[in-house]
Automatic annotation (TrEMBL):
Family membership noted in the UniProt record: Belongs to the NPH3 family.
Record flagged with keyword Phosphoprotein: yes
Protein name as catalogued: NPH3 domain-containing protein
Pfam family for this entry, one: BTB
Residue span, NPH3 domain: 218-507
Pathway stated in the Swiss-Prot or TrEMBL entry: Protein modification; protein ubiquitination
Organism encoding this protein: Arabidopsis thaliana
Disordered, as annotated region: 529-554
Amino acid sequence: MKFMELGFRPDTFYTVESVRSVSSDLLNDLVIQVKSTKYLLHKFPMLSKCLRLKNLVSSQETETSQEQQVIQLVDFPGETEAFELCAKFCYGITITLCAHNVVAVRCAAEYLGMTEEVELGERENLVQRLELFLTTCVFKSWRDSYVTLQTTKVLPLWSEDLGITNRCIEAIANGVTVSPGEDFSTQLETGLLRNRSRIRRDEILCNGGGGSKAESLRWWGEDLAELGLDLYRRTMVAIKSSHRKISPRLIGNALRIYASKWLPSIQESSADSNLVLESVISLLPEEKSSVPCSFLLQLLKMANVMNVSHSSKMELAIKAGNQLDKATVSELLIPLSDKSGMLYDVDVVKMMVKQFLSHISPEIRPTRTRTEHRRSRSEENINLEEIQEVRGSLSTSSSPPPLLSKVAKLVDSYLQEIARDVNLTVSKFVELAETIPDTSRICHDDLYNAIDVYLQVHKKIEKCERKRLCRILDCKKLSVEASKKAAQNELLPLRVIVQILFVEQARATLATTRNNITTNETAVLKRSFTTRREEGGQEEEERDETKPSGGFLQSTPSRFMALCAIPRQPKKLLCKLLSISRSLSQRI
């Protein structure tokens, strides 16, 4: 840390019964009261450098009073230490100035009027000396600028009027740099580093040196976290808008450090915490990966229980939605503090899912309900067309993009957690489930588990709501194990159980058909190969006559025969299902 020494005389100030005096052969002719301390000084050295004291003494001399009056400096900025340093400067006593006391002395010198207007001779007064020290030493060092900025909180108005605060912030923003010995990947992990000995000083004016190498390369985000809210916000804005290209990820890391220090927990929230949270949200970079999704969701949890503006909440939800694939179920359990009685904020999660879908693939549409693409049919009207539809869906499946599949699984797991909320409505559950596109759910096992949990907790819901809840379930995408459990689930509507049984029958029929086709094709190929060996010379002619078309031999009726083996009217299956239907109706 840099420092400056002024004066050459030894310190001759002393204290007698809480009165500060200076040793001299001359009698004291000036009494000044600063705070609770009284100073017995001399007019000559003090009035020659302090314009305010000169004017006050002149006004007192016009009054006819025999007693020596005390000059009261009631509105003096700072403490008595700053005044005493100014007084010692007037006496020529050696004083030491550094980043810790330069602000207080600069404000005191401005108050006393220690400018070049009152100084007689060619030597500069204290104000000019201090400004030179600030410009050439303090503002050239990141560390000194930071320490000086911290001291401005004691005299905020004076520091603002003198421009010290703005100059400190500008120096800090311009001094943020990166250690030249690290590569870019390391810089992203460790953060920007501050350089405290970047410019050599005039050793005559600014004595002292920088700290150790380990101290000079500490991360600047940890230092800035010690600042108050207003100074921190202004400094971060200056860093973001500086000419240096600061990585948004590093700014995000600095915000995380500040939030972890000043936002300890939701339970300890207060009005000050609300201001801190609003400021942190406003400082978040726009870039997607600058702040982890977990940090955004943590802020969103706090915003939901604090008195934070709606726009700030929506900003957090949008930023978190853009990287929803990196979230976990526990992070999505955002508490809800309203009169609905629900434990978690389902609407904000639904908004994040929609934001993620629009960000990843805008053309993807949410899941359509069964009422949109399939007419309602009773279990007696299910015919062969539905079984053929099941066969087609089971035999042809396309994998969704990995991110969409991951988010779909995340939402289904989230539904399983919130289904335990007794105040969660069917509408909230269904609306969130339907935000996931049809093609994103490869398997509906997790969705079925969520529905099962909801039905177990909400056993008294109406029959119509039970049916609406189960319409989002696609029985064709259930695994064999899930289908077995669902077929025995007494809480599911009858139609869902019937559909599950049809799907299982379709799976079995399709598997049998494929096995038959494979066996028939193998036999046909074997007979064809034997015939060609016996006929010998007629091989080319026979090859032309039995040339394959569409992947199978035209001379073999294997596929036709296999397809004919599939029952056109599964009367036995329908009879079995109807009997099951009647028994279930009686049971329900």
